[in-house]
Amino acid sequence: MIKNLMRRGLPALALCALPLLSSAPAAHSAPTESALRPTPAGPAGVRAPLPLYEAVDRLPVAAEHREGYRRDLYKHWNRGLNPSDGCDTRKEVILSEAVETPQVAAGCKLTGGSWRSVYDAVVVTDAARLDVDHFVPLAEVYDSEQTP
Question: What pTM does this model have?
Answer without folding.
Answer: 0.49
